Amino acid sequence: MASFAIEGGHPIEGTVSVSGNKNAAFPLIAASLLTDEAVVLENVPQIDDVGTMLEILAGLGVSISRQGSRLRLCAKGLHGHAPDARLFSRIRGGLNLMGPLLARRGAFKVGGAAGGDDIGRRRIDTHLLAFDHLGASFARPGGGPFELRAGGRLRGADILLDEASVTATQNAVMAASLASGTTVLRNTASEPHVQELCRLLAAMGCPIEGIGSNTLVVHGQERLHGAKVTVGPDYMEVGSFIGLGAITRGALRIANVEPGHLRMFELVFRQRLGVRMELEEDPQSGLTGYTLVVQDEQALRVRPDFGGAIPKIDDAPWPAFPPDVMSIAIVVASQAEGTVLIHEKMFESRLYFVDKLVAMGAQIIVCDPHRAVVTGPARLVGQEVSSPDIRAGMALILAALSAEGETRIGNSEQIDRGYQRVDEKLRAVGARIERVDG
């Protein structure tokens, strides 16, 4: 098992560039199955989970050409509807294949559950609800392979999703893109990666109304064509780097940020925890032309609610604070003067990693699976810990870089699944971090 060896307490200063959005890459890659023409994706993150997704597609007959962050996918030779169960079990993003395969091949079948982070129950009932309305049937005879059948071309419908699930929205939109007639999807997720998928489908010839809202109108087509799009910057990575700059000495410049993604970060990091940062127009800043500067010599302080009440940081669907950045917010809160309640509403196992922060010296009381009280600032000391999931692993890296002494973070493969060459990026801005095999 690989690990990261980190020596904390050193200044972090310079420029770090944000990679393409991992959560956008999966549905965009999956959407290539909807056409027999080439789909070209630029700025695709070079991470382990994307590599696994591409292995699955190759096994289904998709032609793949990859040059750095550029992908060319052609599903003209698509010959199956059953992803490799072993690969499917390694990533959560494989669920994005359900809608496209059901629409294009009339079926989807897999002999195991999707993988991904162990952060609590992640239901797929909303996916099944949407597919049922579109005319598909679901079966799992004898507890065996999971199977969806269309029984002909899918039919447009007016569908109210029972929760604003990101992946269910993506699957429903992709399935509806090849359905007959118009599909109205209500209570949809509207995260940036959902918007990116809708824009790709529109470029492939499927008109979609309401992009960015919670109601999408999808005008199904008999056939879609190829297209070329660029994956936007990963705002989860932006949030991670904001946290890094906030709790370490030195000024950190975060290049290639999208201004429209920063509002909730400003509410939580700047207004609630006192992080000083400013946005600059920068023509050299990647695809967006904007750089976010997290200033040196931070004086982090929790801002109480009216009347001096203990404030709360909680997560919710877009445009609220994203659950994938909650682990980072906890580490930043541990270094801010004052007390704050963390309310992780979406996943019941997300907070389990805080015992590792407590072992490093953080003052955190876990109230229940969804709530924790953090009091700071706490003196952190290096320890030997292990990464339970992608986001908690990145949070532990931040804690280690601000701690005294050396920290060894095991199971670093989890972090590699979501962050592109994170050790190289961090060394470039002064971090003492090394990859250790075995």
Provide the domain count. Answer: 2
Query: What is the distance, rounded to the nearest whole angstrom, between the alpha carbons of the first and last residues?
Result: 5 Å
User: Which residue ranges are poorly predicted, with pLDDT under 50 across at least 5 consecutive positions?
Assistant: 115-121
Biggest sheet details: 4 strands, mixed
> Structural class per helix/strand content?
alpha+beta
Which shape, going by the Cα principal axes? Answer: globular
Number of strands: 23
What is the CATH superfamily label of the largest domain?
A: Enolpyruvate transferase domain
- Helices, by number, come to 14
Mean pLDDT: 93
Looking across the biggest beta sheet, what order are the strands in?
21-22-1-23
- Assign the CATH topology of the largest domain: UDP-n-acetylglucosamine1-carboxyvinyl-transferase, Chain
CATH class of the largest domain: Alpha Beta
Q: Percent helix among the residues? A: 25-40%
For the record, the CATH architecture of the largest domain stands as Alpha-beta prism
Keywords:
UDP-n-acetylglucosamine1-carboxyvinyl-transferase, Chain, four-stranded mixed β-sheet, 438 residues, 23% strand, 23 strands
Task: Give an overview of the whole structure.
This protein is an alpha+beta fold. Helices cover 29% and strands 23% of the residues. The strands form six sheets. A four-stranded mixed β-sheet has the order 21-22-1-23. β17, α10 and β18 form a beta-alpha-beta unit. The chain is globular, with a radius of gyration of 22 Å. The relative contact order is 0.16.
